[in-house]
Amino acid sequence: xxLPREEPPSPPPSQDELENMQKIQxxxxxxxxxxxKRKTHAAPKSIDSLMVDMPFANTDIGxxxxxxxxxEKNIKKKRKRNTGREKEDSxxxxxxxxxxxxxxxxxxxxxxxxxxxxxxxxxxxxxxxDHRLSKAMVRYSSLHITLLVMHLSSEEEVGIAVGAFLESxxxxxxxxxxxxxxxxxxxxxxxxxVVGFVKLAEGDCTAMLMEISETMKKIFQEKGILAGENRxxxxxxxxxxxxxxxxLHKQVKKIDLNLYKNFKSHYFGNETLHRLDLxxxxxxxxxxxxxxxxxxxxxxxxxxxxxxxYMEILY
Length: 315
Prior knowledge:
Elements: H1 15-52, H2 70-99, E1 104-109, H3 113-129, E2 144-150, H4 155-176, E3 182-191, E4 195-200, H5 204-222, E5 236-241, H6 246-251, E6 267-272, E7 275-280, E8 292-298, H7 304-314
Antiparallel strand pairs: 1-2, 1-7, 3-4, 3-6, 4-5, 7-8
């Protein structure tokens, strides 16, 4: 029996054949990768095609978890910048407001001893009932009616204001036409329960005082001095105010009106207009307690005996 003939071993592949085989393997690997990519992108593509048909497809939506889009982050940055600017503007406004607050005023000093004595009696009764309010009382030597307020930022402006003040004398005397102006004080009132004052009785004399105030205001404004306030002028005689003592104002928020109910309609007396003063709110007061005066004008001779008695009280 003849044995099967063995096949001779195949010769090893040549160098060219090996290179071709490697190229084929590389191509097949690339094809597999391409197929995998197609599979992974197939689902998102279908979702995108659906999203295109939705009405909010192009809307920039923020994540509820706190992740925000680039546009929202930009908006927040702008808001922070704007908030910073608002704070700076607020500080500037406060600074400007402080700089423009009144620091000078036209004063009509109270010189009638009867009025001064009546106010002292009123103050004593209030302090007896609440001793804390002694810090809120206006000294009798400082009692006055404010006709006009203004802000003077330099000594140069003070000089201009003094000139306008002296110039107003002729206009005031022209309004009075040689007549004596007697102002009657009767009754008590308050401003928002933080300032107590004696009321000026309404009548022709009060109307004249308001006209004098308006005339002086125009003269000051013609000289470039911004005088007066936006609110209506209400002449009054302040005898107490909580703002005189910040510590007191923390303890006493409002004045108890029952403290002076017996003076509600009390008649304090008359004051004759004889002098007006341009005073500083901030400069050191005089030894007698009255405000620092830049200048004074005598409007009329007035009640000489009344003024003499007042000077004797002060000194």
